[in-house]
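Notes on consecutive records. When two proteins share a document, each keeps its own sequence and its own token line. Never mix them. Below: protein one.
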Amino acid sequence: MSRPSSSRRVLVVPAAGRGSRLGGSVPKALVEVAGRPMLAWLVALYRPWVSAFVVVAHPSTREAMLDVLGDDLPSAVVVQREPTGMLDAVSLGCEAATRWSPDRIWVTWCDQIAVHPHTLARLADREAASSVALPLITRDAPYIHFDRDASGQIVAVRQRREGHDMPARGDSDMGLFSMSAHAAMVDLPAFAATAAPDAGTGERNFLPFIPHAAAHGTVVTVAATEDIEAVGVNTPEELARVAAHLTSR
């Protein structure tokens, strides 16, 4: 299994959301979990694996995000003025990441802070030959599910938030994705140029890019290490659960 290496990877963190369901007065990425902001947890987790950080933020929080990022590694905060969806946020972040000429761009949602280092090592081991690589976890009542064909290739994504018919048990992502430079800088912009807003939320979602990438290249999936890695911090109950886990880990 790979040892941590920052070789030519940039981490993009879309973090322009307001985190209203958490009931706080600060953006989600700055909400404290077990004593430090979510963004600080991500910096500590990914620092051994990447050479630079890009955060996509609301204009009002740019300076606060820079303060949390610190100056240990090169970093940038780019502004998403309108909350049009994760596809646009990821695209902004990938465009900003090109200044470091990365081999791979990793993307993680700002509230997926329970990812295990073993999962990152597994992702790093398998990503090289892929257009996109991502950890998956099989779970009951999935929020996200990827459909596969008979050969095991991902062909579609279902999303509970969009009102899709969901299986009782399915393969769900955990808000972490690795893209090759070509996938991030050529394939993703081409996909985004024609992607329509989803019917349910009216937002342009990133996840439909995964089956698109599978149809035009190679998508590799790896196993997660722990079930809790798939838990995003969206409610006070989830915050308490993730905080307890990280403290015990």
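Protein two starts on the next line and is unrelated to protein one.
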Amino acid sequence: MRKGITPAATATAATLVAVLAVAPAARADDIGITEDGRGAAIQVKTNGGVGGGAGTVGGRSCSYTPNAELNAGLAGGIPRSGLVRWAAVGTFFDFACSDGDAGLIFVPDGPPARTQVYVGALVQQAYRYLPLPAPRIGVNPPTGRDQLVNLPSWLWIAPQTWGARSATASVPGLSATATATPVSVTWTMGDGHQVVCRGPGTPYRPGDPPGAASPDCGYTYRSSSAGQPGERYRVSATTRWRITWTATGVINTSGTLPDLLRTSSIGLRVAEVQTIN
């Protein structure tokens, strides 16, 4: 064992490095080191998008402090087996965030490795804090009235919960913006069927013809909800958000991130149309 690093610290370093080597993004949202190594607070600014509120600065910030014991071990030379598959030279930092998150990270030295760490950190931070609302469901006939078997129901999402949203995370000299754009809504109608609409749908207006189908997002029930819990079908709407990102500053680049989903649900009573002979 080399002087300046304990067995426990070596194990911690090995575990950390192994995780980073296999899945670099696993803790990327916790990384944010200035070039002088003294630490940086990451602030996230969000844009509520169409119908949303003004941009606000998120309350989460993180500070970073070099871990003297582990870095002394690096300077003394940790056996390569202790570093597992990590080949870069760098620095260990303890981090503490205002939301209580804390831990240990390893940041490789020098460009381009450090710049890549910054970009990944900021992108993940912006992605994490995207202000994506659950869809606000609209239907016609309205929820206080029965839907009717064999007559069209209109489906839509309120404008306040549709439209692009963004979040920007930054440290001195570099910022990354994640932008979420809604692309579709999957309606699960409670009777075993789904409807996928490529937009928010069209709200029903009092002047629209009675019994007319929605021009772009609707459904017609073929059986009543009798026998269902509460005599209602459980209907859910899931908005799919496409995520892109751009980074500007020390490096200008862009990319995509996994789609995000947001879901809401309501209960709808569906009744048979009564006829008189």
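For the record: Helices lie at 7-22, 68-76, 113-128.
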